[in-house]
């Protein structure tokens, strides 16, 4: 049986159903919010809408299991798929079978990215699984959450944290699940968002015999070394007055940091440690507003900041980014070269450290400034290279040209992959930005507030209809390919 959802999607795409008023906020899926930003209202609201509990903080005591959630399982995964002698580690996974059609249902593998995983993907992934009678697996990425091949302080073991090993993890787990869990061959759909969305597309391209189709939500398949287009997209979607106010915050920060009398009070306002350099803090401040746009809170950012001038700029901006991302955001180790390179701060490394290594060794995605951009001139590729060398050694460097030559960059060679984007998302230029073929369609949700991985989240009556239309088109493509 094939499920059809195309009529409403077509009406929406033709403009016969009105879009939501300006200011509507698109859905956010909690799994794609980075760990450093999971202490604020955006993450809490995403959990509420998605019907999930927070993923356990890294290093914390395990939470008592909610009886509504599937139990935790562990798979003995190879540390290095090219070297069996490297041993194994325990990789965390979950399975949900409550609506599985054992006779005809497919398998859905939800790929978690750069953070601790949750037992169920929730959101539209779970709803789609219900539509097609799927069994749903969720797999935690190596080096995140509890799935650690070695302590992060063992720098020599980080060499096993590669995209290639992560992809091989997916195939090995899929084969294990067919043999030990379901007992037969199934059609597998691999799903993920952001970096995990890229993994989903790459898994389909790399292992087409194992994965029948892929849903790549805001998948950043193009590893970009000098990602100036990130700020370029922000300037394209932000109202000019709002962009000017955000830039005024950064300029005022620069002046205050350069003044020894004002630096301390300014850093105290933000709650930022004294070991943050000017470039570290400039990056953190830039990320605070960029993620507001990325996750659909552009209008809130502008309404909060535009009327403010003078000394209140710092306090208002600090209050905003703490509200959105939590009190720990402004001191997150991820932004500090000293914190990432000094083992004395290893209790703060966690996902930030592992993701920094992935960017330093393979992916880059370095969001740099340029004349007239939002972020300050201190944020350059040289800054990131120096940070990588300090944290991981001189030999670690992301050859994005070689990486994209293998994996396809903005044009992956694959079929039965649906790529989705949000029109406001500054990560859009790192993904598939147009339909590559009849079997690699790209669907963009076009609206004010349509951001990163919105299609993965739960439906909400207040969401833009263009996002609903996007989900329906995704469901059409996938159900046709799965052919239940």
Automatic annotation (TrEMBL):
Keyword Ribosomal protein: no
UniProt GO molecular function: carboxypeptidase activity; dipeptidyl-peptidase activity; serine-type exopeptidase activity
Gene3D superfamilies (alphabetical): alpha/beta hydrolase, Serine carboxypeptidase S28, SKS domain
Keyword Disulfide bond recorded: no
Swiss-Prot/TrEMBL keywords: Carboxypeptidase, Glycoprotein, Hydrolase, Protease, Signal
A Gene Ontology biological process term: proteolysis
Chain segments carrying region Disordered: 49-74
InterPro entries xref list: AB_hydrolase_fold, Peptidase_S28, Ser_carbopepase_S28_SKS
Pfam family, any one: Peptidase_S28
Signal sequence extent: 1-26
Family: Belongs to the peptidase S28 family.
Name of this protein: Putative serine carboxypeptidase S28
Lineage per the UniProt record: Eukaryota, Discoba, Euglenozoa, Kinetoplastea, Metakinetoplastina
């Amino acid at each position: 049986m094939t499920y059809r959802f195309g009529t409403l999607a077509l009406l929406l795409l033709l403009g016969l159903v009105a879009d939501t008023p300006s200011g509507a906020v698109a859905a956010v899926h909690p799994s794609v919010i980075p760990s450093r930003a999971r202490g604020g209202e955006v993450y809490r609201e995403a959990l509420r809408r998605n019907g999930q509990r927070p993923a356990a903080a890294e290093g914390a005591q395990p939470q008592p299991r909610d009886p509504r959630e599937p139990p935790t399982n562990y798979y003995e995964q190879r540390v290095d798929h090219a070297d069996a002698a490297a041993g194994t580690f325990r990789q965390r996974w979950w399975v949900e079978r409550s609506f599985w059609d054992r006779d005809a249902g497919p398998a859905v593998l939800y790929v978690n990215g750069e953070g601790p995983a949750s037992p169920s993907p929730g959101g539209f992934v779970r709803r789609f699984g219900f539509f097609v009678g799927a069994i749903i697996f969720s797999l935690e990425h190596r080096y995140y959450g509890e799935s650690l091949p070695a302590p992060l302080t063992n720098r020599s073991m980080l060499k096993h944290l590669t995209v290639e090993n992560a992809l091989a993890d997916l195939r090995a787990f899929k084969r294990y699940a067919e043999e030990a869990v379901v007992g037969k061959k199934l059609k597998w759909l691999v799903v993920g968002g952001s970096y995990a969305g890229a993994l989903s597309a790459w898994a389909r391209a790399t292992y087409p015999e194992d994965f029948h189709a892929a849903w790549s939500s805001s998948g950043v398949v193009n590893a970009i070394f000098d990602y100036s287009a990130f700020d370029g997209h922000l300037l394209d979607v932000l109202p000019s007055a709002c962009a000017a106010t955000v830039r005024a915050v950064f300029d005022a920060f620069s002046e205050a940091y350069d003044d020894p009398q004002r630096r301390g009070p300014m850093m105290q306002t933000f709650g930022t440690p004294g070991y943050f350099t000017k470039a570290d803090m400039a990056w953190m401040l830039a990320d605070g507003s960029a993620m507001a746009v990325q996750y659909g809170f552009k209008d809130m950012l502008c309404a909060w900041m535009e009327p403010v001038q003078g000394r209140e700029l710092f306090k208002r901006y600090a209050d905003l980014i703490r509200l959105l991302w939590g009190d720990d955001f402004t001191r997150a180790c991820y932004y500090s070269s000293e914190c990432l390179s000094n083992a004395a701060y290893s209790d703060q490394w966690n996902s930030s450290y592992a993701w920094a290594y992935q960017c330093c060794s393979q992916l880059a995605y370095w969001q740099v400034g340029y004349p007239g951009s939002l972020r300050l001139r201190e944020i350059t590729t040289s800054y990131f290279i120096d940070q990588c060398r300090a944290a991981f050694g001189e030999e670690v460097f992301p050859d994005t040209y070689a990486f994209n030559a293998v994996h396809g960059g903005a044009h992956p060679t694959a079929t039965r992959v649906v790529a989705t984007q949000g029109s406001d998302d500054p990560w859009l230029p790192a993904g598939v930005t147009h339909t590559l073929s009849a079997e690699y369609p790209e669907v963009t949700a076009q609206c004010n507030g349509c951001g990163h991985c919105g299609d993965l989240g739960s439906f909400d009556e207040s969401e833009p209809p263009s996002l609903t239309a996007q989900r329906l088109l995704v469901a059409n493509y996938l159900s046709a390919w799965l052919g239940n």
